[in-house]
């Protein structure tokens, strides 16, 4: 899994910082998560083959999370895109996009599907053989979801010494990987667990922006490989967090600890701060494995 | 008059080029003309005091001319703007902006006025003591206006030698500048033209993007000090101009010549071209005083 941070600052764009957008590479998918103004330029700057994006996930309809979407949709048209594009977003976004297309008399020459989100419970919104995506209901000023991207459990690994020892025909290897008991060449049934090893632990990535401190998301993101959690404020502005429905670095770290994630990535910094290091320092008073998102940074897990 | 080019390329944003946006400084106004995606970042990069913008003029509702507007409106709110903001734009834009505000539950804390344009004839859309703004109906795929920014004719200048010679009381100087005949100290009426000089020729700037070759705009922009005219294509792609309702550099120069403008500024280049110099070379076969717009360039006239 590879996470490309295109933008990780809160609302006000500045000269050198970008509003929220990320690309997650997982099992041959390129998932775009949020799409603030200027995202298409960030995609180009970071040389992401953005025509490969087939699914876009929008957390909520504050401008710093979606104002770049209509431009990206238009650019796909200008570049002659033919592949379907799926947009998973709160109800209302379709109306915004369609109205602008109508006024410009510019319809896409590819299929554009809107999957409008309205549920306030976590739901499965995308699934294929290798990946699942679930919503993570967040607590913000308007209807907002985070997203949990999960690899599905893979195939068991063959313990080749044991397999050869048992003298199992190669034709059964596929079934062994799928967990079945199979016969050996003598016709005796071999218990699967005696000749295979468990599948590698599937990885998962949880994106949680924007949200107030909210322990309700802990069970949904439990044991995630990586958690991106917003940390708009430092402790000295902690009083602003509750009324604006944002979090502090310490609150993000508390969620990370309660959910027992492996790694916490902080982002969505208020543009009032110049020194990001303080976010890490404050979070590490609660949870050790903290990284700072920065525009252009890439995480692999 | 000072013209700041923020972006001057056609539709597809690339890493280092920006879609259409300009700021015209005229008689203490900062007028924003078109507002493609990323305009607010360009305003910051070029250190334009964008809180001073009170009037925004949008030519048409293709995304490369207005996708940056909703973000700018939001940023004004975040920065605590209090001054009124007037948006002069084709009918439909108000609906787009209001819908997005409604979804975000984010209303401006300043007055936002939409002046919706629907006329296909040139009309006066803004006027104060020193400036007029008129629409320039253009011929594009959707309803489109250029804009003519005109200084009003100023006051006559006193010919101080003649004024002192005629022994006119200082109390009458203001009337003289306004063109009136006034008495001298002996009570004799002095003809205005014998003691004043004509006001300086008022300057004007015509913005014409996007449009097919269209001689109907010649009388509207006649004798303009500067004309920005789109030149999407070079001669080798001249066949694309008519169906897409754009112009070539040669067509832009022909309009400049017919309208007898002082200076032609080319822009709205298709992003297929790397060498802008060819636009100038081709235009200069028709009209001599040609300049190339470039992102970040400033023109003074």
Could you explain the architecture of this structure?
Two copies of one chain form a homodimer. The model of chain A has no long low-confidence stretch (mean pLDDT 96). Chain A is α/β, with parallel strands linked by helices and 301 residues long. The first copy, chain A, is built from nine helices and 18 strands. Chain A starts with a strand and ends with a strand. Chain A has helices spanning 39-45, 69-78, 93-104, 160-166, 173-177, 218-221, 238-244, 249-259, 277-283, and strands spanning 2-7, 21-26, 29-35, 55-57, 85-90, 112-117, 124-127, 131-137, 145-151, 157-158, 182-183, 189-190, 196-197, 204-208, 226-230, 263-267, 290-292, 298-300.
Relevant terms:
homodimer; 301 residues; alpha/beta; seven-stranded mixed sheet; globular
The gross shape of chain A turns out to be globular
CATH top-level class of the largest domain in chain A? Alpha Beta
Protein structure class of chain A: alpha/beta
Mean pLDDT of chain A: 96
Radius of gyration of chain A: 22 Å
CATH topology of the largest domain in chain A, which one? Metallo-beta-lactamase, Chain A
Greatest interface by residues involved: A-B, 36 and 36 residues
Regarding quaternary structure, what we see is: homodimer
Order of helices and strands of chain A: EEEHEHEHEEEEEHHEEEEHEHHEHEE
The CATH homologous superfamily of the largest domain in chain A corresponds to Ribonuclease Z/Hydroxyacylglutathione hydrolase-like
Protein name (chains A, B): Ribonuclease Z
Keywords (chains A, B): Endonuclease, Hydrolase, Metal-binding, Nuclease, tRNA processing, Zinc
Catalytic activity (chains A, B): Endonucleolytic cleavage of RNA, removing extra 3' nucleotides from tRNA precursor, generating 3' termini of tRNAs. A 3'-hydroxy group is left at the tRNA terminus and a 5'-phosphoryl group is left at the trailer molecule
Subunit structure (chains A, B): Homodimer.
């Amino acid at each position: 899994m590879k996470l490309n941070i295109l933008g990780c600052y809160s609302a006000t764009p500045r000269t050198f910082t970008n509003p929220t957008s990320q690309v997650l590479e997982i099992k041959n998918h390129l998932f775009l998560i949020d799409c603030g103004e200027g995202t298409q330029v960030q995609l180009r700057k970071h040389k992401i083959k953005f025509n490969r994006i087939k699914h876009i996930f929008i957390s909520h309809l504050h401008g710093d999370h979606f104002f770049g979407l209509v431009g990206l949709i238009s650019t796909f048209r200008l570049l002659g895109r033919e592949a379907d594009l799926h947009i998973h977003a709160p109800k209302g976004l379709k109306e915004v996009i369609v109205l602008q297309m109508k006024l410009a008399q510019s319809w896409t020459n590819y299929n554009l599907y809107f999957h409008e989100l309205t549920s306030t419970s976590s739901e499965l919104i995308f699934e294929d053989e290798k990946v699942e995506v679930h919503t993570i209901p967040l607590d913000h000023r308007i209807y907002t979801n985070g997203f949990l991207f999960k690899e599905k459990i893979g195939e068991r690994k063959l313990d080749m010494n044991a397999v050869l020892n048992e003298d199992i025909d190669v034709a059964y290897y596929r079934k062994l990987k799928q967990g079945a008991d199979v016969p050996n060449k003598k016709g005796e049934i071999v218990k699967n667990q005696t000749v295979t090893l468990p599948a590698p632990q599937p990885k998962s990535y949880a994106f949680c922006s924007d949200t107030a401190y909210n322990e309700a998301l802990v069970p949904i993101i439990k044991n995630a490989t990586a958690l991106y959690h917003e940390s708009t404020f430092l402790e000295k502005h902690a009083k602003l967090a509750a009324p604006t429905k944002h979090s502090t670095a310490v609150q993000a770290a508390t969620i990370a600890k309660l959910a027992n994630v492996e790694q916490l990535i902080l982002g969505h910094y208020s543009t009032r701060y110049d020194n990001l290091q303080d976010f890490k320092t404050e979070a590490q008073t609660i949870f050790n494995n903290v990284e700072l998102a920065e525009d252009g940074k890439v995480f692999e897990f």
